[in-house]
Amino acid sequence: MRAAIYARVSTEDQAREGYSIPAQLKRLRAYCKAKGWAVAGEFVDDGYSGRNIDRPAYRRMFEQREDWDVLLVLKMDRIHRNSRNFAQMMDSIGAWGKQFSSMQEKFDTTTAMGRCVMDTIQRIAQLESEQIGERVKLGMTQKAKKGSGYLGSGVPFGYSIIDRNLVVEDEEAETVRYIYRAYICGHSLEEIARQLNDRGIPTKH
Question: What is the pTM of this model?
């Protein structure tokens, strides 16, 4: 597995312990070594906000995507602080056949359950970016009835297709609600994936 390691620090991050560029790179290199991954490239954006996608190393990394298989970051907020931008990036990574791994959350899309949880979180992020307040619940219901509004080309977890429309699968929908509740309560993605595995909940595919 070839890894692109990405490190970022903004002006407000400068004084935070463990967030310096050298500290991030040191931990990322060690993680790759432990996993047996080859470091295909190191990409560093020093002094750039995570809310801005116009970062030179960030753009160069994706221009060179043929050189790597997995994108590794220390923590998810190192790559994005905007949920919509993160969801769009994950959509592109999936379309390119690449993987994503966050070291601190101990979460990566190289596993089936990891992909399932990330897919659910992406959909939540997309809905939250389009709806506010009480419109979130209404928007989810309307999109499910219309069979639209989901990310990706496959049938999303929690739904099935009937007459070319998305229809809620009650049993899977309960799992989606569980993931959402756990996520907003502060559970890490690793914890959620482990809990689902412990409960014997299968992935969609």
Answer: 0.59
- Tokens linked to 93: 């990574």
List the domain boundaries for the chain.
2-108, 112-198
Strand 2-9 relative to strand 38-46, pairing: parallel
Of 134, 123, 112, the closest CA to residue 88 belongs to 123
Q: Look up 92 and say whether it is catalytic.
A: no
Do 86 and 51 contact (CB within 8 A), yes or no? no
pLDDT range class, residue 129, cuts 50, 70, 90: very low
**Range with the poorest average pLDDT among 78-92, 107-121, 129-143, 175-189:** 129-143
Q: Which of 10, 49, 129, 153 is catalytic?
A: 10
**CATH code for the part of the protein at 2-108:** 3.40.50.1390
**How much is the average pLDDT of 17-28?**
84
